[in-house]
Structure formats: structure tokens, C-alpha cells
Amino acid sequence: MTITDDGLTPADFAATASRAVAACAGLSVSEQGARLVGDGLLGVIAGDNVGGLDLPLSFAVPVVAAASAGLLAFPLMENILLARLLQQRQARIASAIVAGDNSATIAWTGAVSAKKQGDRVILDGWVARAPRASDVGLMLVRVGATGAALVPISAVTLEDSHGIDLTQPEHTVQLNAVSVSADHLLADGTWPALESDALVLRAAAILGSAEACLALAQEHVSTRRQFGRALSYNQAIRHTLARHKLGLEGIRQSIARALFFSSGLRERRAAFLAASSYGVAISEGAVQMHGGMGFTWDVPVHRHVRRIRALQAQGDASGVLAALGHDTIADVSPAHPQTAA
Question: What is the three-state SS of 244-294?
């Protein structure tokens, strides 16, 4: 756990984030953004040159976890990441995000091509999985393999919202000869660095939803009675809850390991994959324990299942697993054949 010179720890932000997210209930997406700005959450890892707190990535973990636990509609993770990403090249835009004067999202899949024309850049292509794109002013898209560009939402064509997370629907976006200023084209290498940080925060978001599901399941089996006793008297249910609690700790520890100063992309991939695996098991287990009630709108466990599945897709869990396996195998020294006696 990171401690700053002022003695702050990430845990200090957990209660503030939970209160702020709870206060967003019933508000529109833009109103939620303004409410979060009032608590200083959008600039938690952004530099002080853009009005941020200039804290390490670990301080965003409890903030993003609280947002997912509360099924926040505002794309908080995307705005936290972009406020820091843009603080040098686009300080004015980063300041606007931190101050709540503008908001943004990220299209997590797909890529566009870029062609320079004088001091402008022409972008063409399709991108997808952009959370709440219709409710923000800007969007970051991947350019080629490793670059990125910032585009105004007004310049692109949004398809109807879709996705399994009904609280935070995604958009597929068409860029047809979209012209942006050349300084909106970010350097090669921008996208991999962004994705690396997103692996950790996506794991934190899954952790928040998994924690909420486990708490709801524990409360339900402790108060729901059948045949004169609480469901929690059933040994199979107690064992399942114990496994889910162990899985939750596995997510938490994998995130902590990914944030060590000596950790790299491998540990971040492992944290996301651990969260994806355990998070699905915990949330779907909570639905099962609630029975038919788990699929009603008033009991939010199925909504957490949807969010976790959406986060899996945005992070390309299967692709991350393949990459982690490939890199791990590549690092294993080949066996040397024994020489003949």
C-alpha cells in the first residue's frame, strides 16, 4: 500500500468515494459527474498542474471500486485515466475534466487510421465499447497499434447504445473522415500505457461489484428462512460463501501485487484475470443464492453480473489470458537435450 509524504493512504479515499457515489443515486450522468468533482475524485491521480491531487495509481483503486459497488452510471474510470494521460500534451482539456467542465470516455476496442493533412489529422474507422459515449463531450480512440487520438463526440457517428450493462451502456462509433487538430493525436506508445493502468482499475471495479454481491448474498441467506431456520444453516451455502470470500481476498491481493513498485505488465494482467475469474463466480453465486429474486431490478446482484461481464469484454479477458500465457512460456528456458554418453 502506497503512503504519501502527507501520510495519506488509499484507504483514506474509500469512505469519501462511497459517500460520493451514494449521493449520486437518482442523478443524471452529468449531475453525477458534477457531484464527483465536488469531492475531488476525478483528479485523484492527475497532476497538480491541472488541478489534480498527483497521487499514485493505487489511490484510484478504492475510488473505482466504490463506483462499481454503487453501479455508478458516470464513466469514472475513463475520466480518471484521461485526466492524467492528457495532463502534459493537453493540459487545458485535462483541467476541464478535473474541474467537471468537460467529460470523456474511451472506446476500448477497435482502432482507426490517421492521415496527416497540414496541421490537421484525418481519422477513419470503427471503434466500440465506449461507455456512455452519448453523455460526454470527448472520446479517446486507438490509432493503429499503439497510438491514440482525442476526438469530440459531435464529430463522430454514434450507433444506438447496447451492451449487457444496462447502467452503463456502450456505443459503437464510426469515424468517417473526422478532422482533428494535430495536437489531438497522441504519441505512439500511449495506448499500451493506458491499457496497463486500465487493467488495474478494471480489476478494482470488478472487486467493488464482487464485494457488493457477497455482502448481499450474506445478508440474504442470514435473514431468509426456510423450514424454520435461516438459509445460512445449510452447510453447502456456508462453504460456498467461504470460497467466495477467499476469492475476494485473491482479487484484493492480486491488485496489491500489481501495484508494487517492482511489478510490471505481467502482474497487472494477472490481477485483471484473477478479478475476472473470481468476480464472475462470486456475482453469479450471489444470484443463485437469491433464487428468482436475483433477477429482479430491486435486487441488484444481476446488475453486478452484467457490469463484471462488460468489464471483462472491455479488457478482452481472453486476449489478456493468451498474452499472459504466451509471455510466460516465452520466458521459460528451453530444456537442453542430454548429451549422449
Answer: HHHHHHHHHHHHHHHCCCCCCHHHHHHHHHHHHHHHHHHHHHHHHHHHHHH
